[in-house]
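Regression test attached.
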Amino acid sequence: MGLALEAVCKSYGQVEVLRPVFLDVADGEFLTLLGPSGSGKTTILRLIGGFTQPSGGRIRFDGRDLTRVPTNRRPFNTVFQDYALFPHMTVAANIGYGPMIRGRAKAEIGRIVAEALDTVGLGHLPERYPAELSGGQRQRVALARAIVCEPKLILLDEPLSALDSSLRHQMQTFLKDLQRRIGTTFLFVTHDQEEAIAMSDRIVVMNAGAIEQIGTPKDIYYAPKTRFVAEFVGDNNFLAATIGADMIETPLFSLPRPAHVPPGPRPAMAAVRPELVGLAAAAAGGLAVDCTVEEVAFVGAVSRVKLRPLGAPGEVLVAKSTSAHAIAALVPGAVVTASIRPEDVAVVELGR
Amino acid sequence: MSGEGGATLHPGLRLAAFALVAAAPVVLVVVPIASFVVMSFWRVDGPDIVPDASLANYAGFFSSPAYWRTFLSTLLLCAEVTAVGLVVGYPVAYFIWRRRGRLRFFLLLIFVMPLFMSYIVKIYTMRSILGLNGFLNQALVASGILEAPSLVFLYNRTAILITMSVIFLPFVILPIYLSLERIPGNLMHASADLGAGAGTTFRHVVLPLSLPGTVAGALFAFVLALGDFVTPQMVGGPSGFTFGRVIWSQFGLAFNWPFGAALGVIMFAFALLVIAAAGWASGRQRV
């Protein structure tokens, strides 16, 4: 069961902001819509929340058609990007708003609110007004307000984007823990790929009003299906490739065609993660590429090494290494052998 | 000039500039009010106005029921104008606010347009609408509601109420509209998201957040009505005697300026009281 979008689309006049989208969200899942601004991810969230009406398609929840059901009758709650806390109400009144509307008794509302405040770690602040809270505290109030109505699904619209980076990491862990604890489906919108990878059960990568790929964080990271996904999520080395009948050829190496890639001939892209480019002795069965070291950039835990392949001076290969010892030997001009395991090469179809 | 550069003013020059800026409110606001208050302690001796330090003018007001009854009935009239302004103005402001794009600004422009027109023109317009051969009578006769044109719409207290309500309506609509427009759209979404229907959202979110503008609008209507003596003069007739007219008659007819000044001070003090009360009421509301 769960949530299902069936050919849901949205246009404003001539502008199509969301092309027909199909998406199933399972119960209890942490699903992230990931994409740059204008990719349609927030539009999907607003359509599910009922804040805008789709131009076509159906939204179902547990089999029930919700497409024309108004926002206040949908079993979902939203954490808004700017939190949308009621400025004239205390923290307790904000959190108790949903239960109050549902006609709960005063004492019961008090208990529900206290419980929610404890859940988000703000038990000491019920009488504060939103203007008296820090960004992180407002975030927690917004979260508490969304969970007290015990929704079937919580929609989160870039809720962490306004927080500074250390608070953001803290909240990521907190959100993920909370979701596991209460078991509610989370639909999370973000443009931050690291955030998406760290938190999600599944990621929906969006671009230009359409879904590029749906998959687990590992799928998305290691097996991008489109060039956009390969570029948007993490760093990648891209090489022009030709898929043949049995082999895949790139300017730097050739490898046997994996079984899941249909035989060519046709052009494609090969993508290799920099951290999967080995700089130590080539592993058995690895693809070896002799390079000169062009530049070594130390960026903290990892170092980025820019390599110029000897056999193809027009190409660049970037490697990332966490080993300080391996890096120490690499000075610009040195010749090294970069090694890549064939299974680490992602074949990206050109397609659309 | 000091050696720190041309942008730094000499301390004396700075003081002069400050004095110049401070002089404007002092000369334009404080001095007229103060002279008014001072004059309220003077007295009239035959054709002359004589400086004095007497409370006789104030005693004259409080000891004469005719004066403070007029004062109280004027306050009631102003309260009625305020009430009509709110009952008509809030829904209008709300309606304009709920429109989208150009229509919204077009409607707003229409409703505040009277602010650009002469006050006297507006009163004469109202007179011609409410009069015996006026638009209102013609419409009521034509639609069969009245058999013959009626005189009840002009030259009485109701005429003042109607005219003031119409003339001061833009002053009520504008601040209410502005406070509605300041409400972030997401708050309405959040309210609906938490299960509230349109009515509940209005009661718990829109109304409390637009209260400061509503109080400001009410205050405008009340204070403007309190100070207005032209409208009662023009459409009030003999029965529509308001405190503004009383003050005017002390200056214009009775030539008792000190007494008129005392009545003016009483009205001014009351207006300040109302403003302070309204400020306190909307200050309790957190926005």
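Expected vs. actual: identical. The longest strand of chain B covers residues 43-45.
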